[in-house]
Give the backbone structure.
Amino acid sequence: MQELILEKKHDESRQGEAFAPKEIASNPLTKKFYIESYGCAMNFADSEVVASILQKEGFGITMQFENADMIFINTCSIREKAEATVRRRLGEFRKMKKYKPELLVGVLGCMAERLKSKFLEEEKLVDIVIGPDAYRSLPALIQEAESGQKGVNVLLSREETYGDISPIRLNSNGVTAFVSIMRGCNNMCSFCVVPFTRGRERSRDAASVINECTDLFNNGYREVTLLGQNVDSYQWVNAADNSVVSFADLLEKVAQISPLLRVRFSTSHPKDITDEVLFTIKKYDNICKYIHLPVQSGSTRILQMMNRTYTREWYIAKVNRIREILPDCGLSTDSITGFCSETEEDHKETISLFEYCEYDLAYMYFYSERPGTLAARRFADDVPLETKKRRLQEIVDLHRRHSLKSMQRDLGKPFKVLIEGDSKKSNEHWAGRTDHNKMVVFPKTGNLNKGDYVNVFIESCTAGTLMGVLKEEIKDGFYNY
Ligand code: SAM
Ligand code: SF4
Ligand code: F3S
């Protein structure tokens, strides 16, 4: 088994950023691959599955694409900008292929699925195009490409979950990990390309999820984030006895692995998150009191055109319910401004909804029409770009005030923090997160390590980080205040 030495190079909570594995020892004779990922956490988790499949075949991994025999780029199609970034990156690889003609370049993920073999016509340097459900066939496609043929497999599956594959943790901090619990999406939000690039929704065998989380815990990890486009519709039917595992059941089973293992999850669809899930979160100290609940728009008219299947009032009622059952729950969201036909009135409704919810964190975008989606086929993309951008800026400015307020609320209070590693700015400070997913930085004192829980007293903050001092180490992981 080759030894992997990997380092985190990006903030995994952000979408649309790239990461690449850092280093990596391997036999100099083994062919080496380099993998770079874009898009959502599910794509990053998929790259870890791909790395596992390739390593089993005897390939080595490298962080420097200059040293690679094969370059894979795991792509995202969610917005036009995401695709443009990938094309720019491919341009850089093209230059490299000029002086290293035997280099193989493979395009993985959602853009591969969306463009299929068209990719090979558009980007002549690409040798392999492989969709998210076809990664098991990657070794065979590599062989084909090595013999001079271009390899394409973009078949979507109704069953594939890669449940039996142990992902190789790329860029891991050794403390936090993503665990995919399902794939695909059955919702047809009219703006969204995901149902076309990721196919039908399917849930992963509950036992394999629990085994993966248990292995992570036994290997020193202290936080897992259960991933799916719509985690609340997770459902696994056990063929042995026909028993059904719901998302609430799965959360509970993962939380029971150890009180020292923090559990997070993403993403919750407002139409599907149930009281049962909320009460399960309440029941376990180690399930983080934090919910990502994308709203997209505050206007019921726009929500209907988006096919989100809830109204503004339904969303507000859901937020109220969350706050009733989990009074101290952190809340984050996604929003899109300038969707087809959006008026100033609709936009004001989004602003007022943001005012009402005062999100701790928000990912805010302007609408980017995606070919083939319901919205592209049905509605005109008729809001001018400047208007989309101006409305987005208004939402961003408003949210910035709310997130600062949310950080300031924590001043003068103690918080349980899971140490993830050195702070980015100084190796004399630790960095970790609170239950509410807020980054905390504090000076190193005492004999602490990554993966330890500590109690940090917050003294100051910026809009993105809390700064504090160590109050005490929490030996048993249980801490209530
Ligand atoms: N499954 C999640 C949900 O239900 O909201 C999120 C999926 S998507 C990967 C992440 C976010 O990208 C969405 O919540 C939405 O705000 C944004 N997004 C999706 N399609 C978009 C588009 N065409 N233009 C702009 N933003 C988009
Ligand atoms: Fe896209 Fe909607 Fe599915 Fe989320 S729930 S992935 S926004 S179709
Ligand atoms: Fe992008 Fe595909 Fe994720 S389109 S956001 S990488 S599911």
User: Anything to note?
Assistant: The chain has three domains: 2-153, 176-408, 414-479. Residues 1-18 have pLDDT under 50 and may be disordered.
